[in-house]
């Protein structure tokens, strides 16, 4: 009888180590700024996307090119491209954000991106690449590095946890891996019996009166733009009525970005929307981005007349079923870890903001404002009833213009 070759544990460990890590041999860094420079490395950028850790939709080539259609974004862009032996191995898209007398190095997609992330070729250690980048980041002309919403599982998470200072409140991003079930029906059995019963009863009541219908609107459908703009307006009204604030909803920047993304030539990131109707009346709309098999649920809006029926939670069931039908691998519900999202999953990725001051001004901004005064002001404002809070925020907006 022939005896099979025996691989020792030491040999197996060596094989795993060699395939898991790559040491930098001859690294170099370029700082890109213009759409032309980014377009020149499109093929290599897209290759990094296919193997990126975490959820890098907001650092995708398509998202970046859409951002760079805005002249002000081009002027402030600092896109760090890392090469090893002339091969592109990492991309960190950032920009200089001017905040009165302070300059912050932050994500290129701010304030619209939901995660800060770095595209990195598998095998390279994030810490080694980021240590290589550190002097380039420090020379970018900023007072502080401010990376918002760094997601667990991504290339930045461990390094930022160890080397940066965490600020603000740690939150979570619920997510759902669809491939662990053979079908939507199998997945539904994983939801608690109590939640299934409540949702079934709510849906039955609506079905009996006028019926429920659901549809998916893909990129290229002329209705997509109208639906997204309607949702943006509804969200703006809700934020104002609740007395909240949102940098992403100020001005028309997000609207222009979405139009650029949906109509631009860059591929790889698709805008997709879902709508739930009661009879002919839309009661819940949700849209987001489809990227590398993952749907990121970016924004939702619902008809306030149906608030008692929890339309957002009801609609999420249709969205998940549609994702199964479309062959989507994963759903990222994004921040925050709201209760209605947690009805549908138990998986949550930690998300936090982190800073690294680069000047005395940056140190004051981080220690006084970001770590102390801002969280205190936020807690005080959120304890106010909705009416007084909305009046206060409206007055503040008028004062600051």
UniProtKB/TrEMBL annotation:
Keywords: Acyltransferase, Transferase. Its EC number is 2.3.1.-. It comes from Pseudovibrio brasiliensis. InterPro entries: Acyl_CoA_acyltransferase (IPR016181), BioF2-like_GNAT_dom (IPR038740). It holds the Pfam family Acetyltransf_6. Residues 194-341 form the BioF2-like acetyltransferase domain. It comes from the Bacteria. The keyword Ligase does not apply. This is GNAT family N-acetyltransferase. GO terms for molecular function: acyltransferase activity. It is an enzyme of class 2 (transferase).
